[in-house]
Write a structure and sequence with these properties.
Layout: H1 2-5, H2 11-28, H3 37-57, H4 63-80, H5 84-91, H6 125-135, H7 139-154, H8 184-199, H9 214-226, H10 233-257, H11 263-279, H12 290-298, H13 300-317
Helix pairs in contact: 3-10, 4-6, 4-8, 4-11, 5-9, 6-7, 7-8, 10-13
Length: 318
């Protein structure tokens, strides 16, 4: 477990100080394979700060370009989350029947049993392909997929390529109202971000390892294997917790470096969420009051901006 905690730190830090950290943990907590929760939180916080400083130290790209890249990644992940189960079942040729995500029939692929109406591909392939392309720094591949998301959401009725299931029905909540594929704000912002990245010398973009897809694959296996739908309370709580952790990590990184690149993805997600709340004020997640959900979306923005400005002032004084 101690070695697993070191994964929060960048590889350069682990190579220089990894063994030292392990020795300190072994001396402080002899005979324990896992430190107390307070120590785990402190190590995770320090790891986020170390990674943030390493990112800022890399001057190969401006902060705003990296911020737009992070925003595009966040939006692609946000669009993919409701369809993890769908893509998993399609890839393994599984017909979930009544366990399908908000589908009102079970025959939803050519090879599935059920009514005659079918569709050829799951909508979730579009945000998944977009996420993979963005991770590898290839926005010219992600931009057409984001444009296809707009087309699929705008022309979902009567189509057999992606169909209209999972788009006209419920999608996911998280920290706000449900968002469906027919709500084009999310796909439109994703397409705009990918287009900007494709026009701004994509060779300067950060290329991340395929290992970042491991959590996505695990979430897909869990959602598909256990038939966890997007309207399940377990799904809703898990997504809300994930978004809160991401907001906290953005705050820690901004406070540690004074860099504003982490404001861009937070602002993009907050805009999408706030638009959904305004458009569907009566469709909030019942477990989260409306006012609390709205505050969780909007409050981090001025707080992060203040943390960045304060850190910059401290750096100038020093």
């Amino acid at each position: 477990m101690n070695r697993l905690l070191l994964a929060a730190y960048p590889s350069s830090y682990r190579s220089r100080h990894g063994q030292e950290v392990l020795n300190c943990l072994a001396e402080a907590y002899p005979g324990r394979s896992c430190p107390p929760p307070r120590e785990i939180a402190a190590l995770a916080r320090a790891g986020v700060r170390a990674r943030a400083r390493a990112v800022v130290a890399d001057t190969a790209r401006p902060w705003w370009l990296d911020g737009i890249h992070l925003a595009a990644l966040a939006l692609a992940a946000l669009a993919l989350v409701p369809y993890l189960q769908d893509v998993y079942h399609w890839a393994l040729h599984i017909d979930p029947g009544q366990q399908a995500i908000a589908f009102h029939f079970s025959g939803w692929y050519p090879w599935a049993d059920g009514p005659t109406r079918t569709r050829l591909l799951p909508y979730g392939l579009l945000p998944l392909g977009c996420l993979i392309a963005l991770l590898r720094g290839r926005p010219w591949i992600a931009a057409p997929m984001a444009a296809a998301m707009i087309w699929a959401g705008a022309t979902s009725g009567g189509r057999t390529l992606f169909g209209d299931e999972g788009m006209a029905g419920l999608s996911y909540y998280g920290l706000g109202a449900p968002i469906t594929a027919r709500d084009l704000v999310l796909s439109g912002m994703l397409c705009a971000a990918c287009t900007v990245l494709a026009l701004c010398r994509p060779s300067r973009l950060r290329r991340r390892s395929y290992r970042w897809l491991v959590p996505v694959a695990l979430a897909m296996i869990t959602a598909g294997g256990l038939h966890i739908t997007s309207v399940s309370p377990l799904f809703q709580r898990g997504l809300a917790l994930l978004e809160i952790v991401a907001l906290l990590a953005s705050g820690v990184a901004t406070a540690a470096t004074g860099d504003r690149r982490w404001l861009v993805p937070v602002a993009a997600v907050a805009l999408v969420r706030t638009q959904a709340i305004v458009a569907q004020p009566d469709a909030f997640m019942q477990a989260v009051p409306e006012l609390v959900g709205l505050l969780l979306l909007v409050a981090p923005l001025p707080a992060l901006a203040y943390a960045a400005q304060r850190r910059r002032e401290q750096a100038l004084v020093e």
